[in-house]
Amino acid sequence: MKLEIVTIGTELLLGYTVDSNAAELGRALAAAGAEITRRVTVADRPDAIRAAVAEALERTGFVVTTGGLGPTRDDMTKTVVAELFGKPLVLDEGLLAGITARFQRLGRPMPAVNRTQADVPEGATILPNPRGTAPGLWIEDARGRVAVLLPGVPREMRGLLVEEVLPRLVRRDSPGARPRVVLSRTVRTTGVPESALAERLGAIETEIAPLTLAYLPSTDGVDLRLTAWSLEQGDAETRLATAAGRLQQLAGEHWYGDDGADLAAVVLEALRRKRQRLGVAESCTGGMVAERITNIPGASDTPTSSRLPPSECRSKRCKRTAPFRRRPCARWRKAPSGSSRPRRASPSPGSRDREAARRRSRWGPCGSPRASIPTPAR
């Protein structure tokens, strides 16, 4: 199969943004068996986009574009390509509902301009984009010409390429033949940026060919997705297992599991094996780390303690020396009714010794994970 790549964006031409999408597309498409005959970059102008896409369709009948699918006025790729194919834009209610739900999850109202992202060329196949609001599009006409439109954000483009575009290309390349095996395996890493991980792995793509490798960053870390194309199932499984082992070796201490492994679950399992406890001290998170851990089934089997910073403490020294504490300093009690000043707690027998012990602790008189002496009762 022959195809061309068109990357769209004035910032690419001016050199403000490096065109990493073109390199990613070239490697992945070539590994999947496609022959890339030409690659061009054009500005965010309708005439430039129309000329580049039309020429690519005339030469090969298949073009992949990136960029120009956003909600702003300079995002015109979808409109121009729809005109070339003679297809009107229609509102997809399901897509609009998905975009609206995404903004609701983020706790923000959806701007009216984002509604345009739910307009798709009539008859086009929508490629779901769980990483953003701009879906990918697969447009095909009666002449067999195909245009695949992908977002310009590298992370979104990469995910759609691996999950939606490459499997369709493999099926299209062998019409009527027995379905080819397409298998994937994911190696999960954390604590290392995508660029640093790529340096660790080096030119691993050559070593694992004909498998393909995709970097998929997320909040937990960077997933390395291996995919086998057009191989017998046994051969594909063997190659994936070997390549995954090699990636685990290169990732070293940053590797924590494969496929659906959950980082919090892996941490808890390691604690169980070593019979260790877990302490969590959080600031500015609202307890999200502790919540993530306790949401794992069986988390109660591992002793866990959590401390949060105070929202307000009346002790001046407390703010400086006791960063982790759930309640205001024990040395100060609630102010009596009608009084604006807090009342100092009256000491109880033995409290002076405990107070001295707290002063010797790392965090001072307010208590801390190291200070386990209870607060004296009134």
A few lines on this structure:
The chain is an alpha/beta fold and 378 residues long. 37% of the residues lie in helices and 21% in strands. The protein has 3 domains: 2-177, 3-Layer(aba) Sandwich (Molybdenum Cofactor Biosythetic Enzyme, Chain A); 182-261, Alpha-Beta Plaits, CATH 3.30.70; 329-378, no CATH class.
Derived from helix and strand composition plus strand pairing, the structural class reads alpha/beta
What letter string, H or E per element, gives the SSE order? Answer: EHHEHEHEHEEEEHEHHEEHEHEHEHEEH
How are strands sequenced across the largest beta sheet? 2-1-3-8-7-6
Shape field: globular
Total domain count: 3
Largest sheet: 6 strands, mixed
How large is the share of residues in beta strands?
Answer: 15-25%
CATH class of the largest domain: Alpha Beta
Count of helical stretches: 13
Radius of gyration over all CA atoms, rounded: 29 Å
Poorly predicted runs are: 312-333, 362-376
Write down the overall mean pLDDT: 81
Annotated CATH architecture of the largest domain = 3-Layer(aba) Sandwich
CATH superfamily of the largest domain: MoaB/Mog-like domain
How are the SSEs placed, and which strands pair?
Elements: E1 2-8, H1 10-14, H2 20-31, E2 35-42, H3 46-59, E3 62-66, H4 77-84, E4 89-91, H5 93-105, E5 119-121, E6 125-127, E7 136-140, E8 146-150, H6 154-173, E9 181-189, H7 194-201, H8 204-208, E10 212-217, E11 222-231, H9 233-251, E12 255-258, H10 263-274, E13 278-281, H11 288-294, E14 304-307, H12 316-321, E15 332-333, E16 343-344, H13 351-360
Parallel strand pairs: 1-2, 1-3, 3-8, 13-14
Antiparallel strand pairs: 4-5, 6-7, 7-8, 9-11, 9-12, 10-11, 15-16
Helix pairs in contact: 2-6, 3-4
